[in-house]
Amino acid sequence: MGLDAHSINSISATTRICAVYGHPVKHSASPTMHNAAMESLGLDWRYVAYDVLPENLREAIAGAAAMKFVGLNLTVPHKLLAMEIVNEFDDSARTWGAVNTVLFEGEIGGGEWKPMRDCNPEEVQAVRTRGFNTDADAITRSIQEDLGISLAGKTVLLLGAGGAGRTAALKLASDGVKQLHLVNRTMSKAEAVANEIRARFPNVAIKLGYPEGTVDLVVNGTSAGLKADDPLPFDTQLFSLKKAAAAYDMIYRPAQTRFLQEAERSGCKFANGLGMLLYQGAKALEIWSGKNPPIEIMRRALQQQIYGRS
Predict the structure, then answer these.
(1) pTM (2 d.p.)
(2) Catalytic residue among 26, 79, 269, 283
(3) Does residue 243 have an active-site annotation?
């Protein structure tokens, strides 16, 4: 969904910029969601998307700082790498060990730092970055709302232990799942996450590999499904979705991945990652703007772009 003529004409030399960096990023619905919200809040801001290779992330963040951007979102594959680049960390980033939201802060003299929204760009003498994680709370809020599942005491199979998968594993453990099975293409990553959960959440039974019995929920935290010809994110010789009561895919586009199609055929309740995208984006906008995000306007914008309906 592009900007209409009125929006284009309203862009000026004082318009402020937020952006999402990812690779790939052309599937992102974040610009639609955020631009609708920014217009609703009366902000002279625009939100754009840039395809940034991992090896260029540091330079790209520095470029945004130099241009006095208000904030950034980071998506695959940048969330872990950003931990090595961002200057300061919110408790959320330290807790979950990944950054998906960056707030730019300006130094305006006398050692005082302010969010870039409160700065006159011409008066800013230095810029620093503060990293947040708005994914973790968004993941479990979406699962609870969209699938009607209370996670405490549940048995969960999580596919993927990379950036998004690792954050999901830690948040599921924090929310009190009884048993968590981790499956990842690289076993060492799964082992590292399992060891972290054992240390931080000793009451959670953490196991590597597929469960033998049934599970309450299967979560896809991999990127398998972004492309139409992607394989299923699990081995059908070792596990069947008929053994699961519900399935959740963090991917939101396509709206129904091959994983969710298989879930529907298997009789599972299922949901995609639209709710996760909505809630992490709403929190990011609150961090950047200091305003209450218009969640229903953001939801309708996403539904219109992804499903063709409001």
Answers:
(1) 0.92
(2) 79
(3) no
